[in-house]
Structures are given as structure tokens and as C-alpha cells.
Amino acid sequence: MKPFIKIVKKIHLYLGLSCGILVSISGLTGSLYVWQPEITSALNPKLLKVDALNTISEDVLLKTSLVLYENQKDTVAKIFLPYREQQTISIVYNNGKTLYYHPEDGRVLGRKSASISFFENLLNIHRTLGIPEVGKYIMGGSTVLFLLFLITSGFFLWWKKYKLNLIKGVKIKWKRNRKRFNYDVHKTLGILFLFPLLIMAFSGAYFTYAIYYKAGFQLMNGFTENTKPQKMIKTGSTLDLKNLLQNPDHHYSLRAIYLPKDPNDTHQFRYIKDRFIGPGLRKTKELKLDQNDKVISVTAFDSDPISEQISSQMYPIHIGEIAGSLGRVLVFISGFVPIILFITGLRFYYFKKNKSNNRS
């Protein structure tokens, strides 16, 4: 057993010193992004807030969006209706510029601010380190290593040492020498935040390896079925943007329209049950039209298989929103844990090296 424990210690050490820094960056950026809706809304009231949005009907929101689109459709790339912190309508143009409009009368409210761009860049660093193409695999790969080996090896080492005295395993003795105190902080935070970090890592890796997650989740379809009736537009039917904006969906609210970049691309319409942040399941619907306005794909939470329903919860689980404010606070705090574990692990390695050198 001792040789095996030595191997586990080596794995934990070298993975901690290598992928630990990447996970630390991911954790810190993720913690900051948890409060993105509240921060950007507070910093940009003129762009993102309107008086009494709940008095503006879905019909009015869609009508305003249609008028804005028809007035400048050749230049429009994306349309975003009120969702989360944004109570206004925003349009992303083909030249990359973003403007915000009042959802009732369509008047221009202003351009995208620096603070909104900051959080967009922060999310990009969180997901890809800001490196095109390969960045998401670097972050996704480090998250998988953190999930499969770093956390599990740390738990194994903790269990072997403290299984007969669990209280000692979570206790920090504040009046100790630097080395022992450093070790106490490392092992205590590691075990206390074991499950939050496991959940965050598991849900975070989904965004890089979604295709494999969905294949795994499909195993659930054999055990249980969604028995709710089909309430969706049939594939092969003909619709267009104007028709969809003139006829509100009675079960979902339209939140985003993605227009084709070239004639062979698809129109995408994304819907949400609730426009604003709240605890519970995230229920969505997505519709895709080809260049001839024929429906080629339609999914909806109410009629999706269980595997798709699970997949759609990865984001609210990852950011803690599924558990409401308490979940978001827990994710915010947990995001700082990897950098503390990295620093204390690095210090522990330094103390050990220094002791070894002194002996020599």
C-alpha cells in the first residue's frame, strides 16, 4: 500500500502544480462572473433598465423587435430581447457594433459599455483563456484532470490519514508553525469544498465536451421517459421571422434571434420559460429554420427526452442559479478555493523541498 500512496501523492503534487494554476484562473474568473447580472445592471441603468417592464406585454416586445429588424435588416446579425439583467432590446450588427433599444417605443438608448465588454471578456478567459480554437480544450482538459485525478487523489490521501478521526481532518490549529498551518488550511478547505468543487468541475467540463456528456446522458432515456404531450412546431413546416414575431409563443418567451451569416446558414430562435433569474430548472426551447424558412430542428423542455433536459441544467448548476441566491453565494466562495489550494500546495512543496535541502 505504501508504494501506491507514494504514487498518489506524486500525482496529486504534480497535477496541483501544473493544472492547478489553470483551475485557479477558472475559479477566480467564475467567481467574479457569478454577480455579472447585478454588477452590469447597476453600472448600466440607462442601457439595461426600464420602468415597469412587467407591464410591457410579450406582443409589444415582439412588435418592437420586428420594427427594429425591418428598418435595418440587412445589417443585423443578432437580436436579444429582455433576459436576465437586461430589460431592454439589444441588436448586434454585422460590423460588430451593439446598440440598445427601449423595448416599448424602440428608441436608441446607447452603445455597449466598457463594463459590459469587460464581463464578456472575463467569460471568454474563463472558458478559453482568450486563446482562439484550442483555448477551450486547454481549460476543459485541466477541468477534467482536476475532476478525475486532483480532487479524487486529495480525498484519498485525506481519507487514509483521517478516516479514524474525521474531526481532526477538518480542524485548523491556528497557533502552529507556518508549515503545519499551511497544511491544515490546505486539507481543511479541500475536504470542506470537495462536493461543490466536484459539481462545478463536472458541470464546467460539459461546455467543452458537450457531445460526450449528451451521449452519456442518453442512457437515462432507457430508464425513464418524458410523458408530457408534444407541443411543438413540426419539422418541415414553413415559418419566417416575421411570422414568429407576430405570433407569440404561449409557453415560452423569445430571448434571442441569430440571423444567418450567409445564405446557406440557419435562422435560430431561442426561447426561455422565465426571462429573469430565479431558482429551479432552466426550461428552454430552440427553433432552427433553413434558408427557405422550413423548420429543420425544434426542441422544447416540455417535450425533450430526459437526456436533453439534464443537459440544459448544466449552466444553472455550474453557476449555482439552480439553488437560488444561496447556490450563487456557494459558487462565488468555492471559486476562490482552487487558488488557495494552489498557493498552500505550492508552499507545502516549498517547505518540503527546503527541508530536504537542509538535510542534504
The largest sheet, given as strand count, sense and whether it forms a barrel, is: 8 strands, antiparallel
Number of helices: 15
Question: What is the number of independent domains?
Answer: 2
Q: Can you give the helix content as a percent range?
A: 40-55%
Task: Order the strands across the largest sheet as they lie in space.
Answer: 4-3-2-1-5-6-7-8
> Pairing-aware structural class of the strands and helices?
alpha+beta
Mean pLDDT: 90
Summarize the topology:
Layout: H1 2-34, H2 36-43, H3 45-48, H4 58-72, E1 76-80, E2 89-93, E3 98-101, E4 108-111, H5 114-128, H6 135-162, H7 166-169, H8 178-192, H9 194-205, H10 210-217, H11 241-246, E5 253-258, E6 267-272, E7 284-289, E8 295-300, H12 306-311, H13 314-319, H14 324-334, H15 337-359
Antiparallel strand pairs: 1-2, 1-5, 2-3, 3-4, 5-6, 6-7, 7-8
List keywords for this structure.
8-stranded antiparallel beta sheet, alpha+beta, 360 residues, elongated, single chain
Describe the structure in your own words.
With 360 residues, the protein is α+β, with helices and mostly antiparallel strands. It has two domains: 14-36 and 126-210 and 329-359, no CATH class; 48-112 and 227-304, no CATH class. It contains 15 helices and eight strands. It has helices at residues 2-34, 36-43, 45-48, 58-72, 114-128, 135-162, 166-169, 178-192, 194-205, 210-217, 241-246, 306-311, 314-319, 324-334, 337-359, and strands at 76-80, 89-93, 98-101, 108-111, 253-258, 267-272, 284-289, 295-300. It has an eight-stranded antiparallel sheet. A hairpin with a 5-residue loop joins strand 7 (284-289) and strand 8. Helix 6 (135-162) runs antiparallel to helix 9 (194-205). It is elongated and about 80 Å long. The model has no long low-confidence stretch (mean pLDDT 90).
